[in-house]
Amino acid sequence: MSTSSPTPVYILGVGLTKFTKPSPKTDYTELGYEAGLKCLLDSHLNYDHIEAGIACYAYGDSTCGQRVFYQFGLTSIPIYNVNNNCSTGSTGLNLARTLIRSGERNCVLVIGFEKMFAGSLQSFFKDRTSPTGRIADMMVETRGVTNSPGAAQMFGNAGKEYMEKYGATPTDFAEIARINHLHSSKNPYSQFRTPYTLSEILSSPTIHPPLTKLQCCPTSDGAAAAIIVSQSFLDARPHLKSNAILIAGQCLATDGPSLFDGSAINLMGFEMTQRAAKAALEEAGTTAKDVKVCELHDCFSANELITIDALGLSKPGKAHEMVRDGNITFGGHCVINPSGGLISKGHPLGATGIAQCAELVWHLRGWTTNRFVEGVDVALQHNLGLGGAVVVTVYKRADGKKAQIADEEIVKRESGVGYNPAVEARGFTREQADRVRSRTKRSEWALADTEKKVLARI
Predict the structure, then answer these.
(1) Residues 243-276: pLDDT tens digits?
(2) What is the C-alpha separation between 88 and 391, in angstroms, rounded?
């Protein structure tokens, strides 16, 4: 597999909605529009600059992407609809990067959005084989089955195996959740922003040992967006370079032979995470030891623990020691999930990977003034989907320097929205929306009452 990049590829802008409990009050059209519009404002671009669109969602009918993108303009660009389970958002980012690296496109808008149902994940197509059926069968064969939600059983079993093999305890998993809930208190986009004590997490209802309720991510509604551009696109607009973030390395991988070897850890994609991390870090010319901030796929606290190991952030079998030593939070070696992670921020499937990207972009810009991580010049992202696919991405500043805390007044001028979006989850004005929608090919019929609803809500 080649790791050479024909052209450097950058994140030029990002945008987010708040992540919320699933509700019929807000539609995916509004979520996608809000995130996409904020992203265009952050990029200081108009929709007419966009050469391709990528829509990321796991639950929805075909061409939901066109329904969202048409609200910005009917510009005849290709629009791709992506579904890759929980790694859908990062798969969209990978597709955008691939299009740009190939020279086919120079500016791509990726929007991930999700409207979910309350409760645990469910399958809707009962008349055909489940794509994760053989994974579930292997779990039953090796660990048995309970009445708990299927995902909680699978990831909980991986946690059990880590305990059996390496000496982790239920308290280690609870401590991961405690830290993520604490981190989310400073993220204005998080679905949950209440810190909990270790005792409260351990005493919350058991879902599947060692997992309790406060160690499991919720279902969520939400959206996130990113604009990906080529070196030549950026060179033609030097005034935008200061906020561009380099995708220094990236790998999308699927499962290897260990998937069905009987290990509960390997059943959760441990091998593909290892492979993707190795490839992405090598491409970026860095190592896991250099990573000071990381957003990883903590759908359950057990998955955060095994992923710390798979990414190489800890020595093999020592992830729980990294947790115990305070090395996954502020003041430690690597701040993991400063956003609060999926456990506390929420997990709207199609948006999650792009929201992770946005968090790390803001850190590298120095915009996360209320949760700034010192000494960051490399940021790592991990987004996993069972079935399976994983995307691991390494980000760096375009100037190669370490991030410094940005001046709030400068951020307000540069953000395009008049405030710092890393620390305030606010909206936009009608005038700002008018500035970034297509100048010549917009359609009020396509937009309908979406903008009115968004403005009323935010």
Answers:
(1) 999 999 999 999 999 999 999 999 999 999 999 9
(2) 9
